[in-house]
Amino acid sequence: MSRLVAGVDSSTQSCKVVVREADSGRLVRSGRAPHPDGTEVHPDEWWHALDAAVRNAGGLADVAAVSVAAQQHGMVCLDDQGQVVRPALLWNDLRSAAAAADLVTEAGAGEVGRRFWADAVGSVPLASFTVAKARWLATHEPDSTARTAAIALPHDWLTWRLGGRGDLSVLVTDRSDASGTGYWSPATGEYRADLLRSALGRDVVLPKVLAPSAVAGTMPSGARLGPGAGDNAASALGVGAARGDIVISLGTSGTVFAVAGSPVCDSSGVVAGFADATGMYLPLVCTLNAVRVLSATARLLGVDLDELSRLALSAPPGSEGLVVVPYLEGERTPSKPDATGAVHGLTLNNSTPANLARAAVEGMLCGLADGLDALIRQDVPVERILLVGGGARAEAVRRIAPTMFGGTVLVPRPGEYTADGAARQAAWVLQGGAAPPDWPVTGTEVFHADPRPEVRDRYAEARDQVLSRVDGSSA
């Protein structure tokens, strides 16, 4: 029997663990456990969930290597004894929006400031980025700032715990997660400690950035630890994405990302120039509002998600003029943390549950299609579009997606692709070599439909009205 490896996905909502054969990728067993709600969480909650998920997966005693993927950007502050200073601020905590804007403005007004950051670290800071959270901490919690001796990301901290902790000098990370901090450059492969110092007001210990297949340490059981990854980079690895592939992932947030051979620097701030988990690059657009848009609409209509999908498919394309702008939690792309959702074009004739259901699906997908357009403007090639994540399980999403994305959409069999990517990295660490093992992704469905540019045009008109109202109220 092939040696076994484990992959962990410590996401916003839960922890998932998969155990797979290192050679073939065959799934042997799995487990999961929930995370608490909220935009700030004590890291001990992740550790308890990981322990529960491991037990639900039958333990790791027979596993030869483990890698951890986790939600990006979250800020874990540690004191000089390695104790957590305060609950971690998660990627979706928007209180740091003003701090992000201040950091950009301090580098120069308008385009000058945005270009400075894009050139420096590949991305323009937003509320989600760790560097913005560091500035918020320095401004609002000086005592916590003074106690902070090191800043880690969620997957760094979990890897450190799995390895038995040790002192702060053994903290490690990988290039994909480091690229989401706002103080590490994918282009140079180096930290910009000066940027973090400007945000936090002091120097702190930062995790060592490891190569994609480097050994990060060992567990007390003797299992090797991989360097881990950010969730989207791990998902790309799990789904087997290659150059020319666009992955659209529908979870709590929605992401549109590509595997690219060179770094991207978008001074508009729409495209984040991240790194991937193999040594290449992962230009990415993120929206805050994805599956929760469908859940909220289902709750409003008093139906479950399956019935919402059926209703959506019973309505005509364009929902008879009804448009949902899905900024239910503010929005990251475009960066409008104070925006709210809106329903446009409501009439006596189109005010039906079916039209509202379809408009919610179309609105969510239109926001992601805007992200796809942004990648194309950065000359990112589009050869295949892969749709993954919990939202891709809805038939209405799968069938309507090609009309919004303007091309054929491939939907791999539902799975835990972030955890799978972490497991594939663990196998790479175990086996060595220039590339991760070639694990097959089977059961992919192909969806075709005629593009509906008129639906996207109506959405764009409603979207722009919402944004102009937000801009006007903040002027």
Describe this structure in words.
- It is built from 15 helices and 24 strands.
- It is of the alpha+beta class and 475 residues long.
- The strands form 8 sheets. Strands 1, 2, 3, 5, 13, 14 and 15 form a 7-stranded mixed beta sheet that branches. It has a 5-stranded mixed beta sheet with strand order 18-19-17-16-22, with helices on both faces. The chain has a two-stranded antiparallel sheet with strand order 4-7.
- Helix 2 packs across helix 4, helix 4 runs parallel beside helix 8 (193-200) and helix 11 crosses helix 12 (353-377).
- 55% of the residues are buried.
- The mean pLDDT is 96.
Characterize the largest beta sheet: strand count, sense, and whether it forms a barrel. Answer: 7 strands, mixed
Average pLDDT metric: 96
Helix content: 25-40%
| Discrete helix count | 15
Cα distance, first to last residue?
65 Å
Gyration radius from CA atoms, angstroms:
21 Å
> What fraction of residues sit in β-strands?
15-25%
Structural class: alpha+beta
Total beta-strand segments = 24
| Low-confidence residue ranges | none
What overall geometry do the principal axes of the alpha carbons give?
globular
